[in-house]
Write a structure and sequence with these properties.
Blueprint lengths: L11 E3 L2 E3 L6 E5 L6 E6 L3 H16 L8 H17 L1 H12 L3 H9 L1 H16 L2 E4 L3 E8 L2 E5 L5 H15 L2 E5 L8 H11 L6 E3 L4 H8 L6 E5 L2 H13 L3 E5 L5 E4 L5 H13 L11 E5 L3 H13 L19 H17 L2 E4 L16 E4 L6 H4 L6 E7 L2 H9 L3 E2 L2 E4 L3 H10 L6 E2 L13 E2 L2 E2 L4 H6 L2 E7 L2 H9 L1
Helix pairs in contact: 2-5, 2-6, 2-7, 3-4, 5-6, 10-11
Length: 490
Amino acid sequence: MTSDPGSLAPRMFIDGAWRAPAGRDTMAVTCPSTEQVIGEAAIGLASEVDLAVAAARRAFDEGPWPRMSTAERASVVVHAAKLLAERADDLGRLVTLEMGLPVGMSTAMVGRVPGTVEFYADIAASVTQPEYRDEAGAAVIIREPVGVVAAIVPWNGPVGMSVTKIVPALLAGCTVVFKPAPETPFDIAFLVDALAEAGLPKGVLNVLTGGADTGQAMVCHPGIDKVTFTGSTAAGREIGATAGRGLKRVQLELGGKSAAIVLPDADLDQVAAGIGMGCFFNSGQVCAALSRVLAPRSRYEEVVAAVEAAARTWRVGDPFDPGTTMGPLVSARQRDKVQGYINEGVQEGARVVVGGGRPEGLDKGWFIEPTVLRDVDNSMKIAQEEIFGPVAVVIPFDGLDHAVRIANDSSYGLHGAVFTADAAAAMDVATRVRTGTFTVNGFTYNNRLPFGGVKNSGVGRDSGKEGLESYLELKTVNLDSLAAQHYRSS
């Protein structure tokens, strides 16, 4: 590799080189399981944003990358993915150190990167292919890269989300200015160095670390053509407003409060498995989490018991222990926020079935138990607001129409699920719940399919063919008869 990817010192990657930050201010990065500072990250200044955008602008306007064939670009990113896979153990451990995901899960996440990259590389040629049409006149529809992309990701899935934003943009021919979350600023170095070694031209990918001010400087910069952001709805609103004033293309994948509807004929083993993964994976720090469980009143006690059993299967502890399946929350602030929601829910009348606080014996680290709350009404704060922690609320319903109304009684619309033995009923529910993604009898996140939400859950779609298409602009070239004949024969 061209530099040490494990370096936890402040630095930026601009115009093909790692460099020391211009400013003196840094952010301490703390391991959430030990509460020990593991490194310092730079806070990018407006002047560094200018340099990064200028480098990306030159690479797009004058450099070879947008003018290379799709196959040539694909060769670079696939090579980089293979280099990244060689460091999967090191990268997985760094992710665990940064944000607390159990090491087996973080290493597995890194291990899926080559397959994801190869998927995008395989479809890139067809997605970027020009299209000939003759609709009352001949024309060619050309798909061109949108330009310079500002990409900002959160901390809860740093490697996967980095790849899902950066790789499709690069394959489309765009150049990128990227900002990781303040909590997870170091792991991106592995991907940067792999791409550099694979032959990515300088300036095509630039990385700035920092907080909201750095991100805001990127979003409002006149040299940026598109903004893609995954994070909170509050931040997404600000980004959307800023991007709108500059008429920039914008893609926002935001929060969720997804409902899992358990129909009376549901297999409760399937319910337990689906809710277990859908609500407690990554300590519940998942925007698509199935955090509202809607249960028929006739089987309410059974469903509560199934969700409780699912919660009890998760082993909370040291994320570097191979036997651990749930690590800490990412920060003290996040843990306190989740505990606050649990306490407020109890004050509103909900009852704790299991969990509800810090696990015994874990006095250090930002841990919280997998928690199930029963006797919840959908009007309660714990049913309306995104908790972003391992907390499931179980809400009773009376009849299918009532269940659908409850599911749709939310400002969010990111994910959802139905559990039933009736395939026709499953598809009926899937079409009636207003959400961007939906799962039948389980919890699914497939980054080879379009993913995104409606309402306060965002605008546009990441992932899949549609995610790659979002980094392309359409150009219509109207042809006269001579040009049309030439095009058809070429």
